[in-house]
Amino acid sequence: MAILGRSYKFGEVNNLVSQQITFFSHNGVIEPIEKATIPFSNLEYSYGFGVYETIRVANGIIYFLREHVQRLISSAKILQLDHPFSALSVEQSVYELVDKAGAGTYNLKLLLIGAPTKDRATLSILCLNPYFPDRKLYKEGAALITYAHERPFPHAKSLNMLQSYLAYRKAKQSHAYDALLINRVGCITEGTRTNFFCLQGKTIITPKDHDILLGVMRSVVLSVAVRHGFVVVQKDIPLKSVSNYPGSFVTSTSSKVLPVKSIEGHVFVPPSQEMRELMQLCDQFLAECRGKLE
Q1: What structural domains and CATH numbers belong to the chain?
Q2: Which of 61, 74, 179, 219 could hold 291 in an S-S bridge, CB 3.0 to 4.6 Å?
Q3: CA distances from 184 to 146, 160, 198 (A)
Q4: Rounded Cα distance, 232 and 278, in Å
């Protein structure tokens, strides 16, 4: 039970906060990490009235900043979360924090939290230790489970994530990498923190755009794939139809292209030549793109 007026620190909730980086950005101002607090009385945060982004920084290169910031602003608009921050000011705050943090490898967490009035909304940017999947998953594939849930605002990366949290917890209890969300008509939409695809030869099948969060890494992978002769098809993917496809994979900022080994009881064949080609193409692009999609 929250005590009115009390606060907690981000670091007390998320133990991934970097021990080396002792500052964060608050409304465009660099502050000591000790000031990264939210009052327990903050109704908007308690109710999940906020949006967020996770951005990869590797050796000082900020990956796909423009795309992430555009989605942050778009997510806020979908939720009718009024705030005083422009895309340009958010990008500037990121650059200033990364410049101070130096050329390390970490993730940035952008938290835009609403308020009763536009001028009281807050933007916090924190440096977190990155999470990378076990390397063996790229050879063997990841196990996934399923969970019945539809996010109310598919295109908004909202802080209202209770069902996704419960689904991901179920996945961890089952020793799975992630949980795929199943909608009311039995179709796979996305993972709790990944986008989902099936692969048949050089044809990539993805759920329809309007049903899912449009992941930044998803956009990167599809862009790279099309440039190298892959075909992308958007259509519903019923859970019962996954056995019709020889392979599938998921994408995210941390995982890039990660093959799927199994979904519930169905086991896919080992990653195909086309799957390995796609993984290599994306790795090469990320190594050479200097953080820019185009």
Answers
A1: 9-128 (3.30.470.10), 136-288 (3.20.10.10)
A2: 61
A3: 13, 20, 20
A4: 13
In Å, how far from its chain's centre is CA 161?
12
**pTM of the entire predicted model:** 0.91
Q: How many helices (H) and strands (E) does the chain have?
A: 8, 18
DSSP code for 80: T
Residue 148 to residues 30, 55, 184, Cα–Cα distance (Å): 41, 28, 8
Encode 247-275: b = buried (16+ Cβ within 10 Å), e = exposed. Answer: bbbbbbbbbbbbbbbbbeeeebeebbebb
Q: What is the pLDDT of residues 185-234, one digit of tens each?
A: 999 999 999 999 999 999 999 999 999 999 999 999 999 999 999 999 99
For the segment 104-151, what is each residue's pLDDT rounded down to a tens digit? 899 999 999 999 999 999 999 999 998 889 999 999 999 999 999 999
Dist. CA 121–CA 80, nearest whole Å: 12
Q: How many C-beta atoms surround the C-beta of residue 288 within 10 A? A: 7
Q: Would you state the structure tokens that stand for residue 73, as one six-digit string?
A: 């602003």
